[in-house]
Amino acid sequence: MSQSPKITAFKWGRVDVAGFDAPFRDVKLWPGGAREWDWSEHDTHHQPGIQPADVEELLEHGATVVVLSKGVHEKLFTMPETLQMLQQRGVTAHVLQTEAAVEKYNELSEREAVGALIHSTC
Q1: Are 20 and 5 a contacting pair, CB within 8 Å?
Q2: Which pLDDT tens digit goes with each residue over 60-115?
Q3: Chain-centre distance for alpha carbon 29
Q4: 3-state secondary structure 62-110
């Protein structure tokens, strides 16, 4: 199992990830990789929020636990369908405020095949 890359620094609008030179604004992380989370790919908005399609890539890369960020001021929602889909697949989901999500993700990356969607603003 590949380890999920650590988040080395976080501040408003910026997420630094070990092994990646450029910072991310919003980031998708999974065992063995990461990339910019482009909300336009699935037409994601703060409401209704994170969709099943947003997390699918994390599962394809082997995540068995997922951390979903609500944003710094908790403006990003998660659709109930997303949580239902994760539950049906036996994937544990943690939906947390961004700083707490970063902390939880880094903690889980030590021992789990964890994926995450981190929103660095609102």
Answers
A1: yes
A2: 999 999 999 999 999 999 999 999 999 999 999 999 999 999 999 999 999 999 99
A3: 6
A4: CCCEEEEECCCCCCCCECHHHHHHHHHCCCEEEEECHHHHHHHHHHHHC
Read off the amino acid at residue 41: E
Q: Which positions ≥6 away from 51 have C-beta within 8 Å?
A: 42, 44, 79, 81, 82
Q: State how far the alpha carbon of 78 is from the alpha carbons of 55, 89, 97, in Å.
A: 11, 17, 12
Render pLDDT for 42-63 as a digit per residue (tens, 0 to 9).
999 999 999 999 999 999 999 9
Half-sphere exposure of 85 (CA within 13 A, CB side): 15
Residue 75 phi, psi (nearest 5)? -90, -15
Containing 56, the helix (H) or strand (E) segment is helix 52-60
Could you tell me the pTM of the whole model?
A: 0.96
